[in-house]
Amino acid sequence: MATVCLSNPKSFLPSLPSSSSSFSTRKQIIVCTAENNVCNFSPIISKRSLSISLASSLLLSLTGNGTFNANAAILEADEDDELMEKVKKDRKKRLERQGIISSSSKEKGYLQDLVYKLSKVGQAIEKNDLSAASSVLGQNTDADWVQKVNSALNKFSGSDEEKSEIDSFNSSLSSLVSSVTKNDIEGSKTAFVASASAFEKWTTLTGLIEELKGL
What we know:
By secondary structure, the chain is mainly alpha-helical. The chain has helices at 21-39, 47-102, 105-126, 130-137, 144-156, 160-181, 185-206.
């Protein structure tokens, strides 16, 4: 309920006989006291101030979200650009690799021969027939077929990981030839698995796994 502050409370008092002067005086005092209490009251916050405060908070909130969204959009755009650049580089490498593979039928033939040799050696070791395995492998890793295989491996290898698999393959192949020559069944089995695994991983890395039969 709103209360009005009166500038002159006397004008709103009824005219009373002089005999009631004391009563009139008391009534004036009461009215003025109420007037003073109302006029001296000052609200801590008005509706207008509250509205301005809420509007300011909302504006700051919207501005903050807009900045965050803008930054997120910039980061996302940068990531998209990096991803597209990587895709382009990978595609270029694949095309270059495919071109090399397509024009290197002789080297692919060396690797296909290796697949057949490993298959025969694996079958012989499974039957514990190391003499048959030795006839395929030879007595050492200086054999002509080993040299040809390495020339093909090196030609198709570009990354450090691919070259690392070549080293693993040659190390395992050397152990295989040595174990077969020594008639070491268990050693031959272990070395054969390591050789075959390294070669298969290399063909996967280079994409030649789809070009060679028997893998």
